[in-house]
Amino acid sequence: MQTPDSQSGHERVAQFDGFFVGFWGTWVLHLGCELGFFRALEEEEALSVRDLAERLGFEEDYVGVWCRAANAYEILDQDAEGRFSMGSGVSEALEAAGPWAGALVHVSNRVCETLEAVFRGTAPPESRFSLHQQMAQVVRSSYQDLLCHQLPKVPQVQAVLAGGGRLLELGCGCGHGLEILRRTHPLVEPTGLEADYECAREAERATRAVIVVGTAEECRYESRFDVALFHRSLSYCESPEQALQRAVAALKPGGFLVVTLPDDFPTTESALRTDRGRVRMGERLFYGMFLSPDPRYNPTRGQVCEWLEKLPVDEVARLEPEHVRNFTLVFRRHSL
C-alpha cells in the first residue's frame, strides 16, 4: 500500500479508516448478540475469558480476541484482575437498538452477493418482500420504539389504543408493526393497507388482521378509523401529499394521524456531505438492489407539515427520536 504524500491524501486515509472502524465495530456487536456473549456477561458481574469460554462452550483463544476487541470499542470494561464486564449503558443500548447491528451484517452479506449482478443487469432487483425480510429486526425495533416509548407521551392517542379503537396502517409491509401492536394494545382493531401482494399476504398470515392490497393514494375509507399510521412508509408513495389527504379522510372526526419519518433527508448538495447525508446516500445505493422507493425522495418533516397545514387537522405533538431514529408527528382531524 502506498503512503499518501499530500495533506488531502492523509485526510482521505483517515476518512477511510473511519469507515473500517465502524464496519468492524458492527461485527463486534453482532457476534456479541448472536453468540450469547452479552447475555452471559449480563448474568454475571464480571467473567474471565476462560470462564466465559467454558460457560458458552467456545474456544478460549477466540473468546479472548472478541473480549479484547469489545474492550477496545469500549463496549466491555476490564478490571485489574483481567475480568470483563458490560460497559456502562451498553445493556440499555442493546435492548433499544441491538437488532440494528445484526441486520446490517446480514444486509451487507446479501448486498455483496447480489449487487454486482444487479449493476451488470444480469439479475433483476430483489422484491420489496425480500427487503422487508432482510430488515425485519430493524423494522421491529423501530416499531417498538414508536409504540412503547414515543406514543405513550401522547395521552390522547394512548387512550384510544388502550380503549380498543380502530387503527389503519398505510404501508404495513409484512405486518411487523401490527404484530407488536397486537401485543401492546390487544383491544385495538387493526387494518393494514399494503401495495405489495407478497408483503400483504405475509402480514395477513402473521397478524390475522384485515389486510387490503392497495396504495395509500387509492385508499377509499371515509371517516372510519380512530388512528391512521404511516410508519416510515411515505417514501413508498408516488404522491405523499395525496396519501396524507386520503389518510385524513379515513379518520373519524377527532381521530389521530401519526406519521413517523426517519431523520430529515438533506435537501442541498452541501447537506449531503454531512454525516447523516452520507448515511442516507449509502442507503440510496443499498435500496438500488430492491424493487422499492429511492430514499433520496423521502419527504422531510418540513414538507409533511406544509402539506398537513392545508388539511383539516391540528398538530398535537412532535416526538423527537428516543432510541431509534424515528421522528414522529401527531395530528388530530377537526371535529364536526
The N- to C-terminal Cα distance equals 71 Å
CATH superfamily name of the largest domain? Answer: Vaccinia Virus protein VP39
SSE succession:
HHHHEEHHHHEHEHEEHEHHEE
Number of domains: 2
What is the CA-based Rg, rounded?
A: 23 Å
Largest β sheet strand count, sense and barrel closure: 7 strands, mixed
Strand order across the largest sheet: 5-4-3-6-7-9-8
Number of beta strands:
9
Mean pLDDT: 87
- Class from helix and strand fractions: alpha/beta
Would you give the CATH topology of the largest domain?
Answer: Rossmann fold
- Determine and state the CATH class of the largest domain: Alpha Beta
Question: Shape, please?
Answer: globular
Helix content: 40-55%
**Strand percent estimate:** 15-25%
List low-confidence stretches: none
Number of helices: 13
**Architecture of the largest domain, according to CATH?**
3-Layer(aba) Sandwich
What would your notes on this structure say?
The protein is of the alpha/beta class. The protein has 2 domains: 7-90, Arc Repressor Mutant, subunit A (Orthogonal Bundle), CATH 1.10.10; 128-333, Rossmann fold (3-Layer(aba) Sandwich), CATH 3.40.50. Helices cover 51% and strands 16% of the residues. The protein contains 13 helices and 9 strands. The strands form 2 sheets. Strands 5-4-3-6-7-9-8 form a 7-stranded mixed β-sheet, sandwiched between helices. Strand 8 (313-319) and strand 9 (327-333) form a beta hairpin. Helix 1 (7-34) crosses helix 5 (90-120) and helix 5 (90-120) packs across helix 7. It is globular and about 70 Å long. The model has no long low-confidence stretch (mean pLDDT 87).
